[in-house]
Amino acid sequence: MSITGGFLILFLLFHATMNLVAVFSPEGYNAICHFLGANWYALAASLILAGGFLIHILLSFALTLYNKKARGNQHYAKVVRPKEVLWASKNMLILGFIIVGFIGLHLWQFWAKMQLVEILGHHEVAIGGMLISPTDGASLIQYYFSNPCYSILYLVWFVALWYHLNHGFWSAFQTIGWNNQLWLPRLQCIGKLVATYICFAFALVVIVFYIKSIMCGGAC
C-alpha cells in the first residue's frame, strides 16, 4: 500500500504540474498532450500506472478486511479516539471510494477521448457538436469545465483527494519505518504541502477555465 501510494503521489505531482501549463499556455499544454499521446513510452507508462492503481485498490480492500477480522465481533462500549488519530485515517476507504468514482468520470471525459481515440486509430473526436484532435486537451478542459455541475463535482473530488493524500503521504513513510519522533511531524507537514499543491493545481485549472467560459459567454 505504501509503495504503490507513493508511486501514485509522484504521478499526481506530474499530472498536476502538467495541467497547470493549460492555465498559462493552452498551446503548450496541447504540445504535452501530443507528446504523451499513443506513443509506446506513454502506453507503457499508462499500463504501469494502471497496474499500480489496481494493486493499491486491491490491497486497500485486503487490509480493511484484515483489520476487521482482527477486531472480531467484539466492540468497545465506548470509543475514544486520541487526538493524534486523524479523521482521514479512519475513513481512507470511504475517501478511496469517492476518488475511484471520480477517476471513472475523469477517464471517460479525457482519457477515452484522447489516448484511447489515438489507440483506436482515429484522428478526431466529437465534443459539443464539433470535431477536435485527440491531442487538443485544452479544448476538452474548456468544454467540460464550462459546465458548473462538472466544475463543482471536480472541486468536491479534490477535497476528498486532499484528505486522502494528506494522510497517505506521511503514513506511507511511517509504514515502511522511515520516520521517528523527530521526522514524523516534518513528514506530516510535508504531506500537507504536497497534498495542497496537487489539489490546488487541479482546482486552479477548473476555476480558471470556468471563469474563462463565463467571461466568453460560453463561446470559448
Automatic annotation (TrEMBL):
The chain crosses the membrane at residues 38-65, 85-105, 125-145, 152-173, 193-211. The keyword Membrane applies. InterPro entries: Cytochrome_b-558, SQR/QFR_C/D. GO terms for cellular component: membrane. Keywords: Membrane, Transmembrane, Transmembrane helix. Signal peptide: none annotated. NCBIfam families: sdhC_b558_fam. This is Succinate dehydrogenase cytochrome b subunit. It comes from Mucinivorans hirudinis.
